[in-house]
Amino acid sequence: MTDLRFRLLLCSFVGSGFACEHGGEPDFFVISGDHVDYRYSRGMEPCAGNAFAVNAFALHTALVLGLDRDNEELPRITFSWLTDEDFELWTNDTCVEAKGCSIGTEAYSHIPIHHHEVVHALMPPGAPFLDEGLAVALDPGSGGSLAEIDERDPRPYLVDFVQGDLGLTDEAYGVAGLFVSYLLQVYGAERFHAVYAAIPRKSEFPDWQSAFLQHYDRSADELAEEYLSAKACPKGISPLPRFECSAPEIVPQDGMVVFQRTLDCSDEDVEGGVSLALIDEARPGWGVRVSRSFVIDTPGEYKVVVVTPTTEDGTVGYALLGPCGGCAWLPEPGIAITGNSEGEVMWLDEGQFFVTVSVPETVAQEVSVSISPAP
User: Which PROSITE patterns match (predicted)?
Assistant: First the structure.
């Protein structure tokens, strides 16, 4: 975990903490990190790891995109977890119905951490297809939905991403995310930056044709066909780094990967939180989650068993397990293993994996994950 120096910006004493209030705007709490100011509305109770995680994700994004974090290539940004009322006060009309949005270097969301919007806040506005495609490609939560995308041809979406029947659909976001993943992993961040800068936000097809020819030495049709024909992952290709895979590594014990601990919202590596403002609406919060990475040295069948608490209404937690390597434009969906079940037997290749454990409540609770060779 990055060594961050956080400070609570002190404005006025409120209850047990401090809050900032500006005339006509919401009041909020601020945790200031090295690269991101994490703000949250009064009534929200974020876990201690949220601010650390958003800062770490900003640094991860800088690494993937080749941004120099010591100069203006990595801007200082703000992420705000807001109540519905504050969200409406702070964002413009185009954001009101959205789960999250970004305006300049400020990202706003209804959820405690919103990686997609953090990417937007870190990058200058670009052509919507590339802009949204990049945010989808780097968002840790996109893997499962991308694996379900059937349509892959980017050409119909390049210009018309926000127009007509094609624009702003889940499929459009998925197509953009997969194509941008291909460009980043195969051709690298430097060329992607050049194309991103060359194509105006309001573009025409000749803009794309010119940028692709100049920086990829291929026409739009040639690049699209090359991408569509890349249906097998080349051996030895460098992976597009996933944020979850930068989590601390579990050291195997006697051939088993075992992760066992008490999850508490006050822990600095635990993400999540609860919104006290929503309890009366039967939306008490988002629970907590924590990620770890591990390495499989011997490919084969493994049994994965997850143990989590059960809430009063019978809800249990789960673990999401996925590979760190491979080709990002050919995503493998993570496998969700329900807590307190008999477990899942699955084939794991040699290489690095991640596991994210999620539980529905923020109170301290015991969880465990064990991964062992199947009998």
Answer: PROKAR_LIPOPROTEIN
